[in-house]
Amino acid sequence: MEMTDGDKVSYIRNHLQHELHFLLSAVELWRALKIEDAGFIVNIARDSVCVHFRNLIKFFTASGVNDVSITKFIDEPLMSTYKRWIDVIDEAILHLSPKRSNPKHPSNDSNDLNDQMENFRIEILRLWEEFTQKASDDYKIILMQELNRANKEVCDDITCLRKLLVKSN
User: Fold this and answer.
1) What is the SS3 string spanning 48-81?
2) What total of structural domains would you count in the chain?
C-alpha cells in the first residue's frame, strides 16, 4: 500500500498519536490503580497498556504483517529487545491460552508481564524519539507536536481520574 505525504501525516496524527496517548494514559491509570490495590481494574489497565504497546512495537519494528510500519517513513525498522514481548502479550491478552493466568517471558521466569508496564512506556518513548531523529524534517515537527499533544492529553486524563477518585470518596 502506497502512502502519500498527506496519508502519512494523517496516520501519525490519527493513529500513532492515538496509540501513544492511550498507552501513556493506561500506564498512568495502571500505576494509580496498582497503588490503590484495585484488583480487577488494575488488570483492565494492564491489558490496555499491553494492547497499545503491542501495536506501537509492531509499528516501530516492522513486525506486523498486515499493518502499516515505520518503513513507510524511514528506510529501516527500529530495533527493540522488547519486541520479544509480542508473543507473551498475544497469549496473555489476546488469546484464550493456558499461559494467560501467569504471563512470563519464557527466556526468564522472573520477567512477569505484570511488572513491565513502566518499561513498556519507557521503551515506546525511546522509540518515538529515535523515529523523530531519523524522520525527515517535515515529519520531525509533526512527531514532536503529536508527542506534546499526547502528553497534554495524558495530563487531562490524570486530572479527570483525580476528579473521579475524589467524587468516589
Assistant:
1) HHHHHHHHHHHHHHCCCCCCCCHHHCCCCCCCCH
2) 1
